[in-house]
Design goal:
Blueprint (H helix, E strand, L loop, with lengths): L1 H75 L6 H13 L7 H7 L2 H13 L1
Length: about 120
């Protein structure tokens, strides 16, 4: 009888210890499962980000290539003449009135209204 009580107490203690251990293990399994889900989501997000970065890198490489092409074309284009030299040429040309023209006629040929009429005639042709 004493042995039966002793065995029964041992069984109850063993069940309590096993239940506690299994409860702790189940809790740890749940936490590990949660960590695994988080890591999977994190890996998926990293993969998406990596793909987006690769795509943007390719796009930026294309843009850089196009900008390089444009820069080389602009560098090869002929230099624009100096605007002051153009204005100086125009000023000299307007000052060079033939000496054979009378003064009144010379001033009328350079008048804005006559120049405007000449330009309109040229545009209409």
């Amino acid at each position: 009888m004493e042995a039966d009580v002793y065995n029964q107490v041992l069984n109850v203690l063993a069940n309590i210890v096993a239940a506690k251990a299994l409860g702790k293990l189940n809790s740890m399994v749940g936490k590990l499962s949660s960590i695994a889900e988080f890591l999977n989501a994190n890996n998926a997000q990293r993969a998406e980000t990596t793909l987006a970065i690769k795509y943007m890198s390719k796009m930026l490489a294309k843009v850089t290539s196009l900008l390089d092409t444009m820069a080389s074309k602009l560098a090869k284009s002929p230099a624009q003449p100096d605007s002051t030299s153009i204005w100086m040429t125009i000023a000299r040309a307007s000052m060079d009135v033939p000496a054979s023209l009378p003064v009144g006629l010379a001033s009328s040929t350079s008048s804005p209204s006559l120049l405007l009429a000449n330009n309109q005639t040229q545009v209409q042709q």
